[in-house]
Amino acid sequence: MSKINTKNRVPVQVKKYSDKDRNNLYAVILLIAVLGIFSYSSSLNHSFTNWDDEEMVVNNPDIKSLSLQNILKTFTTFHHSHYHPLVNISYAIEYKFAELNPFVYHLTNLIFHLLNSVLVYLVLLRLFKNNFVAVLVSILFVVHPLHTESVAWITERKDMLYSFFYLLTILFYLFNKETKSKKYDVYIYLFFIMSCFSKASAVTLPVVLLLVDYFTEKKISLKDVKDKIPLFVISVLFGVINIMAQYEKPLSGSMMEIPQFDILSKILIVFYNYSFYLYKAIVPVNLSAFYPYPDPALSGLPVVFWAAPFVAGIIIYTVYLSRKFSTIIVFGLLFYSITILPVLQIVPVGRAITADRFAYLPLIGILIILSYLLYYLYNNLLKTPSLKKVLLAVIAVSVIGLAYLTRNQSMIWESSMTLYSDMVKKFPENSVGYNNRGTLYLKENKYNEAESDFLNALKYNSRYAAAYNNMGLLLNGRTKYDNAIEYFTKAVELNSNYAEAYFNMGLTYFNKNEIEKAIEFYKKAIAIDPGFAVAYNNLGKAYGLKEQNQEAITNFSKAVELDPEYSTAHFNLAVAYFKTGNNAAGLNEMKTAAKLGNSGALEFCKKNNIPLN
Question: Whole-structure pTM over 0.90, yes or no?
Fold first, then answer.
C-alpha cells in the first residue's frame, strides 16, 4: 500500500492534560452546550408525531416494562422490521419515570446530541492534535441544520445512541494506540456492540478504525487487519440480523411503493445521494423530512442525476490530489464515504430517496474538510492579525446563522400537522405528505380536508396503497360502506400483504352487519400479522355477536396477551366470561380493565360496588 506524505505530523504519544487543557475542554463543553440549547430548546416543547413516534413509543407495548423478561424479549425480537434493542430500552427507562411526557424524550435526544458533539471534539483533538479543527468541527456539528431531523424527531434516538457509542469506540481505540497496548480492548468491544444494538449503520466501524490506522501509521498493516477480525465478525453478525429483521414480515406498504428504476438509473441515484449530502452540508437550506423519488414515468431522470457522478468524481479526485497537501482532508472524505455507504440506497429502503438523518455521523467527515481548509487559511494564508480576526468573525457569524437556521428547522417538528404541511410546501407533489396530513384531518372528523389530501396523494401516486386504504376509512366514516370496500380492495390489490387494509375491510363489513365476511377479513389480517392485537379483539367481538363465546374468549385472550394494557380487550374478555358463567374470571378482567382506565369497566365496578384493590 502506498504511503501518504506526513512529514509534518506530530508523533502519536500519550496525552497528559494540563490545567490549561482542562480549561480549554470546559470552555468547549460550555460553548457546545450554549449553542446546542439555543438551537434545540424550542423542540423540548414539541409533541410526539405520528411519523413513527406512535409505533416506536406511544403505542409500543415493549417499552411499558423494565422487567427482566421484557428486556430479554427486547433483545431477542425485532420491532417493526428493525433490530435496535438498546433504543427500546432507552424508551422503557423514560417511560418508567415519565410515561408519555414528550418533553423527557426530546430532552434525552438533546442531551445525547450534546454529548456526541463533545465526543467529536475529544476524538478529533486526539487524532489530529489540532485544537482549531477539533473545536470548529464540534461546534459546527452541534448547530448544523442537517442534524435537526435526528435531534428533534424522537424516533431517531437510533442516531443519537449509535453515534454516541461509535465515537466512544474510536476514542478508546485512540487510547490504545497512544499507550501502545490493548488495555482498553474491553471498552472497544463493549461500545461497538452497544452501537450495533442501537442501529445497523454501526457495522462500518471496523473499516473506520482501519482508516484511523492509515492516518496515524501512514499505512494499513496485515496485523491491523488481523486485529480487527473479531470486530468484522461482529459487523457481519449484526448485518445478518438486520437483514433478517427487514424480511421478518412480508413487504410493507412503504416497500411496495418504492418506484422501480432500471439499473443505470439506480447507479445514478447512488451518485446523486452521495453528492446530495455534500451539497446540503455546505448549503443547508430547503431541508425536508421527506425527499420523494423522481417520477419513473417521466422520460428520464432530471439532469442533476446525470451530473452527480461527474460532481462526485471531481470531488474525490480533488481530494486525492490534496493527499500531499494534507492527510486530514483525505481522512475527512474517506470517513464520510465509509459511513454514508450503507444509506446510499444501493439497496432501496423506504419511500424517500434521501433523508437528513442519514447524514448525522457522516457529516463529521465533511466538516473535517471544511474546518481544515479554514484552519489552513487562518494559519498559512492570512498574514495579518486583522485579516485573521475578520475570518474568525465570519466563522462566528456563520455558526450563529446555522444555529438560527436549525432553530427554525426544528419548528417543523412541533406537531404532525406542521411536519406534513411542511412536506407538501417543500414538495407540492409529495403524495406521502398529503396522505399523512389527511389522516390527521380524518381523526379530527374534517372529512372534506381529508378527502382533498387523500385524492391529491392518489393524483401524484396512483399506486399508493396506503392512500387507498385511508380513503376507504374516510368513506366508512361517512357510512358509504360499498364505496369504502372498493378502496380497500384496491389497496390489497396493490399490496396483498397489507394487513391493515384487510382489517379495515373486516371493520366495514362488520358495520354492514355482514358478520361472516367481517370474520373472514379479520382472519386474513391476522394471518399476515399475527401480532395484530386489535384484529384479535374485533374478531372476538364478531364471534360474540354470533354467540360463539368460547371463540370470542380465545381471541380476546390473545389480544390482551399481545398487549397487556389493551383495556378494551380486557373489558370485552370480561363480558365474554360473564356470558359463559365464569364470573370469577370475568370479575378479574373487569377489574384489570378498570385499573387501565376503561370507562365501561369503571362504570361497572362503581355501579356494583366492586373495589379495584
Answer: no
